[in-house]
Amino acid sequence: MGGDRFSDQLERWLQSDEPKTVENLGVVFGDKSFAVTALLLMFVPAIPVPTGGVTHVFELITVILGAEMIVGARTIWLPGRWRDRELGETLTAKAIPFIARTIRWFERFSRPRLASLYEQRWFMRFLGVIVVALAVGAAFAPPFSGLDTLPALGAVIVALSIILNDALLLVVGLVIGTGGVVLIITIGAAIARLITAAL
Q: Fewer CB atoms inside 10 Å of the end CB: C or N, the chain?
């Protein structure tokens, strides 16, 4: 894809006639396919648009991707029905402008920072742990609370740090994602106490 910015590459792919599947993502984005796939999947719970109930499916797939990063997988493996699943109208049409605009905003300030870390297998395994933790955190947010937005956004920024080789973005993603998980745990515990008191 030449020297284009990642946002341009992604927008071009999203607007193309190619199948919008995880398998096709692997073909188009090569060694960045884990990060690009996680970014797209977690963008869905990270944005305030109707999702048709697909967020938990996307979060589960992201957990599997993170687990594969942890074991050092080089290519994405998923069951056929998930690998060939279209990402859906919500992501590939309605969210395109928002996705591209958000990524371009980060690209304005991003540059390679500690880029050599992203070439280390142990570091990519560590990032896999982070991706799993944030996806699980988003999945366990109380329904209809909107609290899944912060851990999902954190996962998106962590994935973007891998794509852009920028450790500063990793720190930003960790702060936002961890804050979101702490908020979910705090509010979840408060709700549990209220239910226990009511009983």
A: C
